[in-house]
Amino acid sequence: MAISATEIFRRHPECFEPATAQLFQEGHDPFDLPGLHFARETADSVAINSIAGGAIIMAGSGMCTGGRVRHHLQHNLGREKSSVVFVGYAAVGTLARRIIDGAKEVTIFGENIPVRARIYTINGFSAHADEAELLTWQKQTSAKRTFLVHGEEHTMRQFAAHLTDTRVEMPDQIKRLSCEMNAMTEARFRQCSHFELEWNFRFSRDRTWQMSSITPIFGIYR
Question: What DSSP element (H or E) covers 112?
Fold first, then answer.
């Protein structure tokens, strides 16, 4: 997906800010870096593990909850000569956050991996809207209820203080809703005409997908 998104950006320089657009006008493609190779196919990604010399691997997801990055971590976290750089926010409970917080060992694909690599973080890069942009967007919706479900609790509470003319719901209410949904019987579950689920999968060693957890997020009943 990241490779496809990069191609979309490359095809639409008219959407860039002036400084970046000027680079294209001068014949400089910021996506055409020396030595850059896109590994679209799984086999290309796996081949990276055989590189004996230096290499910079960029992979997602950023919070390491899925994607090829988990395979790269499995092969490199235990190497003292490796460095792992996390760019942006990592939520509590995610693999990335556990590593950032100093875990000495983590479990990836059922294997206990010692963390010997050097760990770094860069928090200045984010494609998400900042506080001012979020407040502007929320006011435009004129929503009577606003749910804050993403981010650290203390940060969400600070943000909630800036929300006016709306009823703010915090994670404790969401957790209770999730528990109530989890308690539904199978028959009740089948009565849902629409149900959005957050699926957490893990790729087992025998290369079959297994469902590790399901968190009901929203339901509309008949």
Answer: strand 111-114
